[in-house]
Amino acid sequence: MSNSERRLEFRNYFQDNLGKRMVTDKIVKIIVISCVVIAIIPLGSILADVVRMGIEIISFEFLTALPGAAGSGDGGIANSIQGTFIMIGMTSVIGIPIGVLSGIYVSEYANSRVGKMIRFFNDVMMQFPSIVFGIFAFLFIVLVLGKFNLWAGAVALSLIMFPIIARTTEEALKLIPDTYREAGHALGLPKAVVTVKILLSAAKGGIITGIMLAVARIAGETAPLIMTILGSKGWFRGTETAMDALPLTIWRLSLLPYDEAVMFGWGAALVLITILLALNMSVRYLVLHRKGGSGSLGMFMRITGGKK
Amino acid sequence: MSRDLLAKKKNFHWDSIFKITATCAGAFVLLIMVLIFGQLLSDSWLIWEKEGLSFVTGDRWNPVEGREAFGALPYIAGTLVTSLIALCIAVPLSLGIAMFLSEIAPTRIREPISFIVELLAAVPSIIYGLWGLFTFRIVFKDWFESPTHEALGEHIFLFRDAPFGLDILTASVVLAIMIIPTISAVSREILLAVPAIQREAAYMLGATKWEVFRMSVLPYAKSGLIGASILGLGRAVGETMAVTMLIGNAVGPKAFPFGFFQQGNSLASIIANEFNEASPVSMYFPALIGLGLILLFVSLAVNVCAHLIIRRVTNAHEGGIKGF
User: Fold this and answer.
1) Is B49 a member of any domain?
2) Residues A135, B271: C-beta atoms closer than 8 Å
């Protein structure tokens, strides 16, 4: 067989094979794209349903009035909205300082073995079932005080919140070059001052992002609230009493056999989703418009396990 | 001079206070974990004392005073079965999404789709539950469950029960929908972390995109992707609200998952459903706390596995191509 014949044969074979390989490639591409489509359909349907059903019920009265008799279709969910914001506030008061300080400790003070260990425990705790925190707060606070109250809810939620903030703070601090720290120490500043004045202000964007992601996460938690703040039909009457929050309202209404109640549930879901989306959009805006670009968004997603 | 020293001394004081505060905050996570375990164990002690190991292996559930019997097996099985079905549905789809986002999608649509996926990861489970209860359940029953039951119900015991909409399969599918964003977001990160040289070498040999992915990206990212899936499993195990609303909430021996269209219950959902009904002085209450303790251990085991795998992968990446 001459050299040119062999070359021709090889080329033919390669071209045939190439065709087959290209077909396989195309098939895989189609499968992958259909995966995306199959996943997008239910996810899109959720958002579409919440908006479609919620928009029908939402009115000025719905957002500002107390709930009427169950299933009557009167009144609104104002107390739940109030409760959600109060829960966010109280949880932040407990969760943010602990989370930020814990992140500072792991990044600035701990030696690598202790730091790794605490980081690991923060990671594990972040994935605990939220209902367990609810049980814990019930046993630890509700049973001791003898009544359902807002602080129990805030404690349960802050236990979900602080590992997220600790991890994001730690990662944000790690992104700051060591020259910043060295410059501070060269000025003779004590470590606390270097950390608070230089590092925290340099890592501000990242830390705020972490906090907002954590807030978005706890704002939608339902299970711990069933056991801690129980739910009520009135306005806020002090931290020692039961209170309502949006996720709790949705749950309670969805179990009622009246169409009007269910519609209220959809309305509450729309309000809740709007709050969460607003938080997430602002996180995105913050991350995109601060120094360092969007590269670090992935980092936060990774830390929170894509959970936010 | 003396003023300087004084200032320094004062600063030193604050310095150590700050350090101690930060250390306490760092140790807080350990303290809380110990507290949670201790509290759950001490409050469920009664049930372990009374039922012993049969609390884990038993299947009866009767909170009526005088005839109390508590066994957690159907709910442990319910948790594991729903989570595993969800995982089987979610992992291939999530890998497809992750592959699309990291390999195939043009840069222009990569960002918006990643954004949507990450946004959906933030939708709370109660909303998935609401949607599942009022939209998905009906569609799913009419279009999938009833036809399958009619076609296969007589031959395969898994499809034997008449579908009602609130059953193990519905809960699992909604769980799958919930964990798809989580798994695909983490998988995408892992695929993007594969060094470009890996891909370039394969492209240079004339490989197609699929071949690059199969021969050069997948082996590198394999254990990371397994870790991502287990992370999704961890989320599914602890998921409460959506499952509670959709699984049908059966109790006792009939809650043991024998078929897709059967009403079941999971550890988290039975706690959420019955917690406020239980009186803290009865046997019922320690039994529910005991379920919480079991749930904690199951989720702890799953998540520690996931983290160890993911950490091994990231460590390997840091040191170059040590993973091979």
Assistant:
1) no
2) yes
Mean pLDDT (whole number) for B146-163: 84
The count of domains in chain B is 2
Interface test with B, best of A11, A38, A136 (most B CBs within 10 A): A136
User: E strand or H helix at A300, and its extent?
Assistant: helix A297-303
CA pair distance B130, B164, nearest whole angstrom: 17
- pTM value is 0.86
What's the complex ipTM?
0.87
Is A254 an interface residue toward B (CB < 8 Å)?
yes
d(CA A304, CA A218): 13
Least confident interval from A99-103, B22-26, B64-68: B64-68
Which domain does A143 fall in, by range?
Answer: 62-303
Inter-chain touch B295–A265, beta carbons under 8 Å: no
Beta partners for B61? B70
List the domain range (segments joined by +) for residue B305.
Answer: 54-323
Q: Give the pLDDT mean for B168-197.
A: 89
- Residue A107 and residue A195 in one domain: yes
Q: Which of A80, A88, A124 to mutate to test the interface with B (most CBs of B within 10 A)?
A: A124
Q: What are phi and psi of A243, to 5 degrees?
A: -150, 165
Q: Is A94 exposed, middle or buried (0-12, 13-18, 19+ CB in 10 A)?
A: middle
- DSSP-H helix ranges across B100-124: 107-121
CB-based contact, A146 to chain B, within 8 Å: no
Residue B32: list chain A partners with CB under 8 A: 125, 159
- pLDDT greater at residue A160 or residue A209: A160
B241 reaches A (C-beta below 8 A): yes
Contact across the interface for B185 and A306, Cβ inside 8 Å: yes
Q: Tell me: pLDDT of A257 over 90.
A: no
- Do A77 and A46 reside in the same domain of the chain? no
Instruction: Say whether A105 and B299 touch across the interface (CB within 8 A).
Output: no
Residue B207 · residue B283 · CB < 8 Å: no
Q: Can you tell me the mean pLDDT for A242-264?
A: 89
Q: Which of B18, B116, B120 sits opposite A192 (nearest CB)?
A: B18
User: Residue B82 in contact with residue B178, Cβ under 8 Å?
Assistant: no
- Listed in sequence order, the residues at least 6 apart from B182 whose beta carbon sits closer than 8 Å to its beta carbon are A305, A306, A307, B121, B231, B232, B235
pLDDT surpasses 80 at A151:
yes
B36 and B74 assigned to the same domain: no
Q: How confident is the model at residue A233 (pLDDT cuts 50, 70, 90)?
A: confident
Would you say the C-alpha torsion B32, B33, B39, B40 has a positive or negative sign?
positive
Stated as kind and residue range, the H or E segment containing A247 is: helix A246-254
Compute the mean pLDDT over every residue in chain B, rounded to the nearest whole number: 85
A149 and A78 share a domain? yes
Give me the sign of the Cα torsion angle A185, A187, A188, A193: negative
Q: In chain A, what are the helix, strand and coil shares in percent, each to the nearest 5?
A: 80, 0, 20
